[in-house]
Amino acid sequence: MDIKQIQDLIRFVSKSGVNEVSIEQDNFKITIKTTQAAPASSSTLADVHYAPPAPAPLAAAPAPAPAPAAEAAPDTSKYVMIKSPMIGTFYRSASPEKPLFVNVGDEIKPGAVLCIIEAMKLFNEIEAEISGRIVKVLVDNASPVEYDQPLFLVEPI
After folding, report:
1. Cα separation of 16 and 18, whole Å?
2. What are 39-88's pLDDT values in tens digits?
3. CATH topology of domain 78-156
């Protein structure tokens, strides 16, 4: 099972209203649990590759996000938001010593690596799906991100 299939499964489980799904294959086991207490259900990847369940310390911080969006609302209509495909930790470079993948003003093409999101000690490269110019980086380096959280504003070319 590759990362895309896992992401699709997480999205399906979170939308279906099911509380828990477990899948076992030869040397692979995954358990996805959702919490139904929150208005918008969030999923937590609890067990991958026989790893023990990890605590879910990540909490959404919706209060700061609307303030910048409200200030930049008139300008963002022509921009495309690139959103996080998963829950994890956002990194702008492969390591602290290496250069950033993209900066504000950089032109990107489909397939270009924009950032890395670490989820359960797996480092996932997030690639651009459109051509454009980076207008704004919406997340600080090494900060936690939620599924579908905006990461970049891109002006399509």
Report:
1. 6
2. 444 444 444 444 444 555 544 445 555 555 445 444 567 899 999 999 99
3. OB fold (Dihydrolipoamide Acetyltransferase, E2P) (2.40.50)
